Amino acid sequence: xxxxxxxxxxxxxxxxxxxxxxxxxxxxxxxxxxxxxxxxxxxxxxxxxxxxxxxxxxxxxxxxxxxxxxxxxxxxxxxxxxxxxxxxxxxxxxxxxxxxxxxxxxxxxxxxxxxxx
Length: 117
Description:
Helix content is 38%, strand content 32%. The protein is an alpha+beta fold and 117 residues long. The chain has one domain (2-115): CATH 3.90.470.10. The strands form 2 sheets. The protein has a 3-stranded antiparallel beta sheet. A two-stranded antiparallel ribbon has the order 3-4. Helix 2 runs antiparallel to helix 3 (42-64). The longest helix is centred in the middle third of the chain and has 23 residues, at 42-64. The chain is elongated and about 70 Å long.
C-alpha cells in the first residue's frame, strides 16, 4: 500500500530542496521526522510539513477506506521523496548603460510517497 503527499509551489529552488530530500530517502517515516527536526535549513521545514501530511493521509485512509484497513501506519517508510521544479517568476534589475539583468525567483514541488511494504 502506498500513500502520498504533494506540496506545490514552494518558494525555494529545487536544488536547495533536493539536498534535504536526499537525506530522508528510504528511511522509516518516524526516523525521518526526527532527522528533519534536527536539520537547521528552511527547506527542512517544508519537507517535514509534507512528510507530516503524508503520515496523516495514511491515518485518514486507514480509518475511512476499506481496502486500506490492513495498512500499518507505524511501519511506514519513505519509498520516494523528490523535489521538482515549478514555475519561475522572472524579474529584471537595471544594469549599467541602460541594460537589464534577469532575476529568476524559482519555486519547486515536493512529493513524498510512503509505503508499508
